[in-house]
Amino acid sequence: MKKNTLKNNIRILIFSILILFCFSINVYGASYSIAANTSIEVGNTFKLSISSGDVTGRLNVSSSNGGVVSIISDSKAWVEKNTVTVSLKANSVGTAVITVTPATLADDKGEVHLGSKSITITVKEKSVTPPPPPPPVNNGNDGNSNTSAKSSNNYLKNLKVNVEGLSPRFSKTTLNYALTVGKDVSNININASPEDFKSRVSISGNNNLSDGNNTITITVTAENGNKRYYKITVTKVVDISKSNAFLDNLVIQGIILDPGFQSEMLEYNLGKVASDFTSFNILTFPKDEGAKVEIIGNENLKSGKNTIKIKVTAPDGITIKEYILSYEKEEGPEVIAEENSLISLEKASNDNFIKRTWRKIKNNSLIVLMYLFILVEFAQILYLYIKLRKMTPKKSLDIKDNMKNRKNGPKKEIKTKDNMLNEEIENLKGLKENPRVELKTRSALKNGNDNK
Questions:
Q1: Hey, which bits of 42-92 come out as E strands?
Q2: Do 223 and 152 form a contact (C-beta atoms < 8 A)?
């Protein structure tokens, strides 16, 4: 009876653990997130990113104030363990709350019920570039005619080289470029024209290239003397087939690159992030599987404007491409150095911890009950086990005594037979010495048998 009770308790324990495991998967396995640029100028369109994590289904997107921010694409988004985008437009100055509400979401284990998530969008006036100041007017006192101010335009109009592979594509605001050439290339011919014909262009470093990295500098000097420097990093390699250091794709969770990722575009702006944001989830896919990727500056993000560098080294170990990700992190609350304030903060932190713990217990009450049930069952099993152990020594002692008696029995029987055999041998010896005794003994035995 006690053994059956023990087996039943073990079965109940195993069944409870299985239920707890299944329930835990449903509680903690499902999630999704949303992200968007929270500060937009009037008239601009932007994207709302929805990352589904490990769930699949439909979500509804709505705006609290369509006059400020409206949804210009389908307001019903279908996610399937990926990231989708919804197009929005800033119509007027103000704020609007964009809400994403799950309609039907499910993970691998079945239907999952998740709450809605919201993000507040602030629409501001469109910035207007002030017109350039009018040129100074000569008052005529010195006898000269009116003259205009000297130009400060130091941009390039175009940039071309006689070797294919310049990246990224030329843009007058992009200052850094990269180029990979073979070992037989010693000089690079460059055609660079200024945007303002009054500017001057000078080029250095494009001749007598050495193995490895070389820097070509193109200096544009405006009419007023202001200078702008364009740089081309030329990597001279022995085997150009092993010099591919470009990324094939770049994915950042919760961020939509605008414009989209291009292998030859090396600079991207990730926008603003919250003050408690610590790091980006960055996935890189190099074109050459043998390339080495190193992400620098993606830990403990600093407040203000900063950059993250993605350094890609080709299999040849020489060719390097660097992708620059710029971001702006909002300033966090000021640190209070006073002792009383620190104590208050510590107390508030402890209170928040207790509240968060109590909230988790309430939200997962079934799990807590399961754990309590398991503890009770375990205590009961332990009690039965100890009780059985106490009863075992007495039974073992009885068994040992029985075994001892059984062992002693055969020994006693064997000893008796030995004694009888010894007596018989003594009798035979006596018969040899005195045959009459033998006859007498036999006659006595015979008479005794007859009497019986």
A1: 45-51, 56-63, 69-71, 76-80, 83-90
A2: yes
